[in-house]
Design a protein that fits this description.
There is one protein chain. The protein has 207 residues and is mostly helical. The protein has 5 helices and no strands. The protein is elongated. The chain starts with 28 loop residues before the first helix and ends with a helix.
């Protein structure tokens, strides 16, 4: 009696590649990445602010800023208004591309870049004429440390805006959420730069 044979299907091939990572539908990878980066930058600024308040509250016995340091509050206030205005033009650019208004987006990005460049130019000019350097006492060091750190972030923001401007004029962006991340992500960073300057200006120049 012959034994019954059962056909066994060939085993499925197992690929060595790992499965694709799941992506949350609530937030895009690029947006999450810039938000996490901003969190790390907040901690960096926090370290500088801690040093500033230590020098001002703990290590300082006299007036602040100490003699003979004087800060150009009016110039810095005007510069603050310029930078804050750039946040509105950045928001205008993003809202415009969401409505598929490419021309308004291009104008918003270009205006934001020009306002940011003006802010940086005025800050450098302030350094030239302020009358002291980072080597002059602890106040000079922490003043240039805080404002210079922010200036470096403005420079990075301008580089991102420059790329966004070039891509915007080449027609790379669209109204869909995934099609204008190149505007939204630099915008998030730029708003962070603006908010940090308001904190720096209030702390260093006003309080």
């Amino acid at each position: 009696m012959e034994s019954a044979s059962v056909a066994v299907p060939p085993a499925e091939e197992h690929h060595a590649h790992p499965p694709e990572a799941n992506q949350s539908s609530r937030i895009d990878r690029q947006t999450l990445g810039i938000l996490l980066f901003i969190v790390s930058e907040v901690m960096l600024f926090g370290a500088f602010f801690a040093s500033y308040f230590f020098l001002r509250v703990v290590a300082n016995d006299g007036p602040w800023p100490p003699d003979p340091f004087e800060l150009p509050v009016a110039v810095a206030g005007m510069n603050t208004a310029i930078l804050v205005s750039s946040s509105f033009t950045m928001h205008w650019a993003l809202e415009s591309i969401r409505k598929n208004n490419r021309r308004a987006m291009q104008m918003g990005l270009a205006t934001t870049f020009l306002l940011g460049s003006t802010f940086l130019f005025i800050q450098v000019n302030e350094y030239v004429h302020i009358g002291f350097s980072a080597r002059d006492d602890a106040f000079g060091s922490i003043f240039y440390g805080l404002t210079g750190l922010h200036g470096a972030h403005v420079t990075v923001g301008l580089l991102l805006l420059g790329i966004a401007n070039v891509r915007g004029w080449r027609g790379h962006y669209g109204p869909e959420a995934k099609d204008h991340l190149g505007v939204e992500v630099p915008g998030i960073y730029w708003h962070f730069v603006d908010v940090m300057w308001i904190v720096v200006f209030t702390t260093v120049y006003i309080l």
